[in-house]
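hey
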């Protein structure tokens, strides 16, 4: 199954992914782009994520979220409700280095894939469990989706804040657009998997228990730390003392000056205005106390600036300043092109479309390939050629509804 010419970090590592959540699927995606051979096990009618959102094309019936999450994976279909399907999954696990799974703990017992059962069968295997609230604890059986998980992590309580709250003061707590919580959960699963692989020869197999809520609580750790100090941070108080999002005459920029030299650069950028030269503003604590007054001046100045010009001049002065880019600007930017952040991937009926590659640059695959349009398109290659079963075996399983 592995490509001998593949010299990526996870070359030779076989991952069996049995997952329907965004978090676990994203973990599998990143592992695949690190060079692992990822075999996605789907039910015969396909992963439900295939049908989420609008189809990329009427002929393929695959939504963009599934397409993004499942590049460079093989698709195998198994009916785990039947003994034959569970037996074939066992064969795949026997040949794998990593088993990536998001099945609820109670269902694992029914399918014969509890951590203890798998460890007895494959003592060298790394079993990576990615669940909304982890595999242990009173919430381990809870179902969870992006909205639940984002707010369960505590971050939603602090949003919107800053300029957004000033512009929309009556807006209730909201979540970040997209799958922020689940992508963070998947990223942590990748880091934990990589760590377990590094010591696999010495330690053998491990059960890695990833809770998406835990990950997002960690992201809100500063608010929790402040609570321990007796301060309940909320969206009305959570903002930079000064700076943050500034409206220019043709867009928005973000500025944050945590260090003294950055503040001094910002003063120069503004042309050394008299108000900013007040001796008391040389003290960071005094600047924090007078943040509202500073922001009044900053915003009045920013509304007279052009985004590209102020970013260029600010960066030259060492000011952490960047433009709020729109999606089409990201796709077309020179920075994006040079770093090859997007690869052109052929899609049925659509030609080539840009797909985000990976957030790193080492040993990326030469090209990205969408997961098979039809679930189980790789059954013959994986179950037949790799596991060694005959064509009649595959036909018999398909006829019995096991694959």
């Amino acid at each position: 199954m592995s490509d001998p010419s593949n010299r990526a970090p996870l070359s030779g590592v076989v991952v069996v992914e049995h997952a329907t959540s965004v978090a676990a699927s994203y973990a599998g995606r990143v592992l695949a782009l690190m060079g692992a051979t990822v075999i996605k096990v789907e039910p015969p009618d396909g992963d439900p994520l295939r049908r989420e959102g609008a189809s990329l094309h009427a002929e393929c019936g695959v939504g963009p979220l599934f397409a993004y999450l499942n590049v460079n994976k093989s698709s195998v279909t198994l009916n785990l409700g039947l003994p034959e399907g569970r037996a074939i999954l066992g064969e795949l696990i026997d040949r794998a280095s990593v088993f990536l799974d998001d099945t609820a703990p109670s269902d694992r017992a029914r399918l014969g894939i509890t951590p203890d059962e798998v460890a007895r069968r494959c003592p060298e295997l790394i079993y990576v469990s990615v669940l909304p609230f982890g595999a242990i604890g009173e919430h381990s059986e809870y179902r969870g989706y992006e909205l639940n998980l984002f707010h369960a992590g505590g971050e939603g309580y602090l949003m919107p804040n800053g300029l957004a709250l000033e512009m929309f003061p009556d807006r209730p707590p909201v979540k970040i657009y997209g799958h922020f919580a689940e992508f963070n959960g998947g990223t942590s699963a990748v880091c934990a998997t990589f760590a377990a692989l590094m010591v696999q020869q010495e330690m053998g197999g491990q059960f890695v228990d990833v809770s998406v809520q835990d990950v997002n609580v960690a992201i809100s750790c500063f608010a929790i730390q402040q609570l321990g100090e007796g301060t309940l941070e909320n969206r009305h108080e959570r903002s930079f003392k000064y700076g943050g999002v500034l409206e220019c005459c043709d867009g928005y920029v973000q500025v944050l000056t945590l260090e003294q030299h950055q503040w001094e650069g910002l003063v120069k950028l503004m042309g050394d205005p008299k108000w900013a030269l007040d001796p008391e503003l040389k003290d960071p604590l005094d600047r924090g106390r007078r943040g509202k007054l500073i922001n009044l001046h900053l915003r009045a100045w920013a509304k007279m600036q052009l985004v590209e010009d102020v970013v260029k001049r600010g960066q030259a002065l060492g000011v952490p300043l960047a433009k709020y880019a729109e999606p089409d600007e990201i796709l077309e930017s020179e920075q994006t092109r040079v770093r090859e952040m997007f690869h052109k991937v052929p899609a049925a009926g659509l030609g080539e479309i840009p797909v985000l590659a990976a957030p790193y640059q080492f040993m990326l695959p030469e090209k990205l390939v969408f997961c098979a349009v039809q679930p189980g398109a790789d059954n013959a290659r994986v179950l037949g050629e790799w596991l060694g079963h005959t064509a009649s075996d595959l036909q018999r399983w398909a006829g019995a509804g096991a694959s």
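The chain is about 40% helix and 15% strand. The mean pLDDT is 90.
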